[in-house]
Amino acid sequence: MLNGLITFGSRRQSLSREKPPRAGLIAVCSSEKLLNTPVRRQRLRKIAQLLAFPEAHRRKLVDRAVQHFAALVQGLPASEAHHHAGLGGLLDHGLETALYSLQRRQGHILPPHAEPEQIVHEADVWSYAVLVLALTHDLGKIVVDQHITLYDANGQRLGHWDPWQGSMLERGATWYAVRYIPERAHRLHEPVSALLAHRVIPPAGLSWIARHRELLTLWSAALHGRLEDAGIIGQLLHQADRESVAQNLGGDRPAPVGAVKQPLGERLLTTLRYLVREGSLPLNRNGAAGWLQGEDLWLVSKRISDALREQLHEEGFHSIPSRNERLFDVFQEYGLIVPNGDRAIWRAHVTGDGWQHELTLLRMQASRIWPDAEQRPADFDGQIEPLTSEATATVEADPPPETRSDADPVEEAAPESAPKQAEEEQADAKPHAEHPVAAMPPLSGDAGEAFWAWLTTSIEQDQISMNTTDARVHIIETEEGELAVLLVSPGIFQDFGREHSIEWQHVQKRFLKKRLHVKTARGTNIHRYIAQGERRQSELKGVVIPAHTVTEHPPSPNRCVRPVA
Prior knowledge:
By secondary structure, the chain is an alpha+beta fold. It folds into three domains: 26-246, Hypothetical protein af1432, CATH 1.10.3210; 264-392, Thrombin, subunit H (Beta Barrel), CATH 2.40.10.200; 433-563, Thrombin, subunit H (Beta Barrel). It contains 17 helices and 14 strands. It has helices at 31-35, 38-51, 55-73, 89-105, 116-136, 141-144, 189-196, 203-210, 213-223, 231-249, 264-277, 301-314, 324-333, 418-427, 447-460, 491-500, 504-512, and strands at 26-27, 146-151, 157-160, 175-180, 290-293, 296-300, 345-352, 355-365, 383-386, 473-477, 483-488, 527-532, 537-546, 561-563. Strands 5-6-8-7-9 form a five-stranded antiparallel sheet. Strands 10-11-13-12-14 form a five-stranded antiparallel sheet. The longest helix has 21 residues, at 116-136. Mean pLDDT is 79; it is low at 1-17, 251-260, 390-430 and 432-442.
C-alpha cells in the first residue's frame, strides 16, 4: 500500500520487451508501472493526504480515476515543443496540476457563500471535482493534436489508435509511436477533453458531481475550457495549470535543487515556435502576424514581442526584457534572426491580393520554427519587399516597463529614443485593429485634467471602444457589486499621449494625482484582471475608477474580464 492511494502488485509491470523491435517505438505499460516512479509516488501520497478520503471511498473514486488516466495517456507528451514535451509529459502534467489544484483548494471554503452545514456536507465532492478536472483538462490532445500508431510485440503495425474505442491496453498493443498533426486546430482539445472525461472518471464519481447542481455548472464550464464561466473551479485549474507549466519550463518560481533553467534565447525560440504552430500567431493573410516565403519567415516585430511577453508571463517567466530593443538584441545574440546589417529589424512592404502594408519586421529562417520542411505551411501568395537601409534606421517603439505603472508613477527623463517613438509608432501601419480616439484640440493646462475631459467626452459621444477584444476601456463589476471602469494601462494613456504629443507617463501621473481612482487592497494604483476569450486568455492591467464618475449610462459589465485571484 502506497500511503493509502495506489497499490503496486508484484505481477509483471510492463507488457513488452525492454528493447523495442524497431527504433522510435514506445512500450505500452500498465498503469501500475507508469505510476511507480519516485516522483509520481510522492505526488500521489500528497494528493491522498490533501483529500483525506476514507479508504473505501478513495479506492472506488480516486484510485480508479488515477489508474484510468495513466492507462489512457501512457507515455504521451503534453505538447510538441512546449511544456512537458518529453516522454510521460501528459501524465506528469495531469498529476502536477491535480496536486497544485488541491493545494490551492485548501485556501478556499467551498461551496462559496454556503451555510456551514452545506459546506461540511459538500466539501469532499468539491475537492473530488477539482482533482478529476485537473487530470482530464488536457485529455483532448490525444485526439486532436496527436496521431498514435499501435504495434504488436514483433513491431508489426496494428493501425491507428482511436482513443474513443478504448485504451492501448484494451487494443492489445505492445508498442506505439506518436507524431503531431500539422496545422491542428488551436485549443480544440479543451471541449474534446470533456467528451473523453468518462474514460477516466468512474461512473460513481460523475454521478456524485452531478448531484450538486452549482458544482456541476462550474465544473462542466471548466472542463469545456470556458474558464470565464467556471468561477472558483476555473480559477483553481488555471492557476495550477500555470504553476505546472512554469515548473516544467523553468519559470520564475522556487526551483528544485539542481534544476537547470533554459537559456533565455532557447526559451524565446521554444515559445515562439509554440505560438506559431498552435495558431496563436496567424500567418500568410491580411492582418497576420507573419508571412512565410521561401526559407524566410517575416514576423511583425512589435506583435511578436508582445505575444512572447504575454505567453511567458502566463508560464511564470517575469524576467523578460521589457524594452523591445533589448529583446531584439537577445534574438541577435542567440542567432535566432537574420540581421539587417547591425540591426535586428527590417522595414518592408507586404503586399497581398488587394492590400499592402509597410511594416517593421523580424526576419527568421523558417527552419527555426519548422525543422521538418514537410510540416511548413504553404508560402505566402504575395510579395515581401524589404526597403532600403535608410528607411530602417529607426528602432520600433518599445512599450515601457510594466513595473513602471504598478505604483505611484515618478516623472522621469525621456529616454534617448523618445523623439523617434511617435514617428515609429505612426509609421508602423499594423494590419490589426486600431484603437479609435476622440479628436481634441492641442493640449493646454494640466495633463490630468485634459485626459479626464478627453476620456469622459469620448465615452459620452461613443467615440471610444468599450468591452471589445482590443478596447482600452472595460466596464467591470467590483466585489461589492458596483460598476466600475477599467482603464487599460499604459495603453489608454499612450493613446492620449500620441494624440497630444506628450509623454504618457506624465499624463498618467497627473491623472492619478486627481485621486479619482480606486486603489488595490495592497494600496497600489494598478489592478490586474484576466480577459478570457474564446481561444485564449490574457492579463489586463489598469486603473479602476467608479463608473458613475465617468458616465450616467454605463453599459453592462464585460463578463469576460475578471479579477486575478
